[in-house]
Specification:
six-stranded antiparallel beta sheet, five-stranded antiparallel beta sheet
């Protein structure tokens, strides 16, 4: 059994739990609000940075395309391309000496956006110059680019489109660095193709845009903005991995969503396997499929919230200690008077009514103490009266003629002398044995029924001499010695049962006489119909048939009609005689007579009536056959009149001790509990079964048809 918890401890525990839950809810709510606000701010900041970088990248490529287009359309470049096409070496040497070439190279070198400048000719030759870190050019000549990627692809796409194009990052085989290219076609005045102008954009130019002022714009130590292509490879350098352009795969959720044309923000796992906050979108550039992603590590983004969480925990702990101290003092103040009241109540439960509590407070507890003192005084007087009453009841209990037993869960507590005399057991034997052993085996469940009112039932008392004594038992729960017990009042009803049995036998005798008289009268009427009226009708029919129809003339039709009426009358008289008392009952078996009855009912009503026969005794007495026939006859009449059935089945079979008869239909059925008053047909069937000491049962429900079951004992 679990140990009881005092109200003081419960009040303290509940108050602490309430305070603790309040602190947790307030602290948790504050933390969640701050966390949500910080996440929203971080997402907005990432989105703003991503959009700013995307605009810069778009403007960067827009300016590069404009510059390469201006260069390709300049007269100096066109003249230089024409000279190169006519005499490559001489054109190259003469162009190096011009001031326009020096100015162009100086402009491109100082732009910090290009790493080389080149002109590709239609015959596969190429002029190219690289820009070093000191903004100086280093010219060189490559006589064949047709087999080198990406130059051949750049040349073909630029000539095919006929305008300035930007190309995705790839590795330059000449400089062995990752670069992007912008190119524009060079056309002569007659629109002949002279070649293309090619400007190489190194990855450092793109990294300068992506990695510029990351700390200043709020990305801290772990934030970055990077570009990725449709092959999921980086197009700008990672802040954390070296040589990441075109080598590090970032097949992450943001990149996949952006490549599908979606823009958004979410918490994801980045290409390093770290939790980050990410903002992503597609980057709409001409002739390239890139996406831009701005990310910052989860821990750094929530660092301020984590600091707030630690402060909330510390403050909450201090507040919890203060609340615990206050609750402890408050619970002691409230529960100390109740503790004194509990001790006094325990003394009262032990029957000690001498304690009077002082009233120290003018509140509900003081009022409760005052009421308790009055209640203690009343209990003292009431207990004295109950003890006197219990003594009087004990005297009455021992003097009554009915047997009385008090028991708890079947264990006798008290018995009177009348029960000792009634059962034949001594008082010690009755108290030692279980109360269930006094009654027949099928009555022990009565002790498990739960009821508060008096419950009466009839049972059989098993005496010590194994005599089965009919008794009437009244059962009720009472309080005896401060515990709830069952009180049984057992009355001998042997004389009443004897009189009831005699009345039942007399009634059955009279009822059997009436039914047997009815059968005898039916037999007499059946015999008179068959031997008297039936023979006269047959004689009249024979006389009519002896008349020569040829001599009657016009009366012939009348005589024919009279003959048919006599045939019908004779058939009706035969059927009436058979219904009153079938002659076949005395000549044939019950199965044959019932089969004729089923066939006749089927032909007259249209209902399919079947007879199922099982094992039957070799011979049945005439009374049993007659009663069984009448029961089936009455049951089939009810099927025809009331059931609206399509099919009925009559079953007869037997075992060693009993004969069984079932009549079942598939009609509308009825509720036997609501139709308490039986009609004459059901009443006659039941009475015939009772006369033969049999059993009659009706099984039916609305919509499920009706089944009548009869069990008759076999006379051996």
């Amino acid at each position: 059994m679990s140990r009881a918890v005092s109200i003081k401890n419960r009040l303290f525990i509940f108050s602490i739990i309430f305070c603790l839950v309040g602190l947790i809810l307030v602290g948790g709510y504050s933390y969640l609000i701050a966390r949500r606000a910080l996440l929203s701010r971080t997402y907005n900041q990432l989105t703003a940075i991503r959009e700013e970088k995307a605009v810069r990248v778009k403007y960067f490529f827009r300016d590069r395309l404009r510059e390469v287009e201006l260069i390709s359309t300049s007269h100096e470049i066109k003249r230089f391309a024409e000279n190169l096409n006519e005499n490559f070496q001489e054109g190259f040497d003469s162009y190096l000496k011009t001031s326009s070439f020096t100015s162009l190279i100086s402009f491109l070198s100082n732009a910090d956006s290009y790493s080389s400048f080149g002109i590709l000719l239609p015959d596969g030759r190429m002029y190219c110059t690289e820009f070093n870190e000191d903004s100086e050019s280093e010219p060189y000549i490559n006589t064949n680019f047709g087999s080198k990627e990406p130059f051949n692809n750049v040349y073909e796409q630029t000539i095919k489109k006929g305008k300035a194009l930007a190309f995705d990052f790839t590795k330059n085989p000449l400089s062995n660095i990752n670069s992007s290219f912008v190119a524009a076609p060079i056309f002569s005045r007659s629109l002949d193709t002279l070649g293309i102008v090619l400007l190489e954009i190194p990855e450092l130019a793109m990294n300068g845009i992506m990695a510029e002022r990351l700390d200043e714009i709020g990305l801290g130590n772990t934030g970055e903005v990077y570009l990725a292509g449709s092959d999921f490879l980086m197009r700008s350098s990672s802040r954390f991995l070296k040589n990441s352009v075109l080598s590090v795969e970032c097949k992450t959720f943001p990149v996949e969503q952006a490549l599908m044309g979606k823009t958004g923000s979410s918490k994801v796992i980045d290409y390093r396997g770290e939790r980050v906050l990410s903002s992503y979108s597609p980057l709409h550039l001409p002739h390239t499929t890139w996406v831009i992603v701005a990310e910052i590590d989860w821990n750094e983004a929530l660092s301020d919230v984590n600091k707030l969480k630690h402060r909330i925990v510390i403050i909450g702990f201090v507040v919890f200690i203060l609340l615990t101290t206050g609750v402890l003092l408050f619970s002691w103040k409230i529960t100390n008077p109740l503790y004194e009241l509990k001790k006094a109540a325990l003394r009262v439960s032990d029957g000690k009514f001498d304690r009077v509590l002082p009233i120290e407070q003018r509140d509900e507890i003081g009022l409760l103490t005052q009421v308790f003192n009055k209640m203690t005084l009343r209990l003292k007087h009431t207990t004295q009266r109950l003890m006197e009453r219990e003594q009087r009841l004990l005297h009455f209990y021992r003097a009554t003629v009915d047997g009385i037993m008090l028991h708890k869960a079947g264990k006798p507590i008290l018995v009177n002398r009348a029960l000792v005399s009634l059962s034949g057991y001594s008082e010690k034997e009755l108290l030692r044995n279980s109360a269930r052993e006094l009654f027949a085996d099928n009555d022990f469940l009565l002790f498990n029924q739960k009821h508060d009112d008096t419950f009466s039932f009839e049972s059989v008392l098993l005496t010590k001499d194994l005599v089965r004594l009919p008794v009437e038992v009244q059962q009720k729960k009472i309080i005896y010695h401060d515990q709830e017990v069952e009180a049984l009042v057992i009355r001998n009803i042997s004389e009443r049962k004897r009189i009831e049995n005699e009345l039942r036998r007399e009634r059955q005798h009279r009822l059997r006489s009436v039914i047997d008289g009815q059968e005898q009268e039916r037999q007499r009427l059946s015999r008179e119909l068959h031997d008297g009226l039936g023979q006269v009708l047959v004689a009249i029919k024979l006389r009519l048939e002896s008349i020569s129809l040829d001599e009657l003339g016009e009366q012939r039709q009348t005589i024919e009609t009279v003959k048919e009426l006599f045939n019908q009358t004779i058939e009706d008289a035969r059927r009436m005689s058979n219904n009153l008392m079938p002659a076949a009952l005395s000549e044939f078996s019950l199965a044959v007579v019932l089969r004729n009855l089923c066939n006749e009912t089927e032909s007259n009503s249209g209902i399919t009536v079947s007879l199922v026969t099982g094992v039957l005794p070799d011979s049945l007495d005439m009374l049993t056959k007659t009663y069984a026939y009448r029961i089936v006859q009455e049951a089939l009449n009810n099927v025809v009149k009331h059931s609206n059935a399509n099919r009925a089945v009559v079953s007869i079979f037997s075992d060693i001790l009993k004969f069984y008869l079932h009549v079942e239909d598939d009609g509308v059925g009825f509720d036997p509990r609501k139709n308490v008053e039986m009609g004459n047909g059901l009443y006659n069937m039941k009475e015939r079964s009772v006369i033969l000491n049999g059993r009659f049962e009706i099984i039916s429900s609305p919509g499920s048809g009706t089944k009548i079951k009869v069990e008759l004992p076999l006379n051996k």
